[in-house]
Amino acid sequence: MSSVPPPAIQMTEVSKHYRRGDETVHVLDHFTLTVEPEAFVALMAPSGSGKSTLLNLVGGLDRPDSGRIEIAGTDLATLNEAALTRWRARNLGFIFQLYYLIPVLSAARNVELPLLLLPLSREERHRRVEAALTLAGLPAERHRFRPTELSGGQQQRVAIARAIVTDPPLLLCDEPTGDLDRSAGDEILNLLQTLNERLRKTIVMVTHDPHAATFASRRIDLDKGLVGERRPAT
Length: 234
Known about the structure:
alpha/beta, 10 strands
C-alpha cells in the first residue's frame, strides 16, 4: 500500500507574541492550520493581523513561542540555524511584494543566487536559470537586463523565477501583486495558478485583496489569530 504523504504545512497550537513597550501583542494565539500538498491557499487579512508573521514562521525565518510547525513532515524545531538554511534552500521559494532584486545584477544573475547554495556546476546553474526565467515568462532578450530596466510586472517574474529555480515544493508569497496594477497583477496570479496546477507547487499567498484571493483554490480569513475559511463553490 502507498503511504499517504504528510500535509505540506501542519501548524498545531502555534502562538507568537511581541513586546511593544509595556504591552504584549499576541499575533497568533494557539493557531492551528493544515495545508495539503499541491494546494493554492490565500490568507486574507488586513494589515497587522499576523499573516506575514505566519509566513515567516512557516519559512523558518522566525520561531514560535509555543506550538509545533511541520513542513512536509519536517519539524522545524529540530533544525538548527545552519540546517534550517540548507533545508530552506531546497524546499522553499519566497515571493515578496517589493521583489528584493539586487539592482546591480542582471535578471539572470539575480535568479542564480539561490543556486549558489547548492553543489551544482556552472553549466547546470545556467541551464536552470534560463529554464526558470522562461517558465516565469520573461522574454529571452531581457534575461541580461538589470531590474531598473524592467517593468514592475517583469521584475516580479524575475522574483518568481528566483523562487522556483531550485524546484522547491512550497512557495510562500507575501502580497505578490501589491505593487502592480490590475492587469500586471492578474498576469502574475495566472502564473501562480500555472505553477500550482501544472508543476504541482503548494502555494500559500497572503493578501488583503479579495480579487487576488479568487485565484486560489482555498481562502482563509485570518483575524487576530483566529481562522475561518471560504472555499470556492463547486
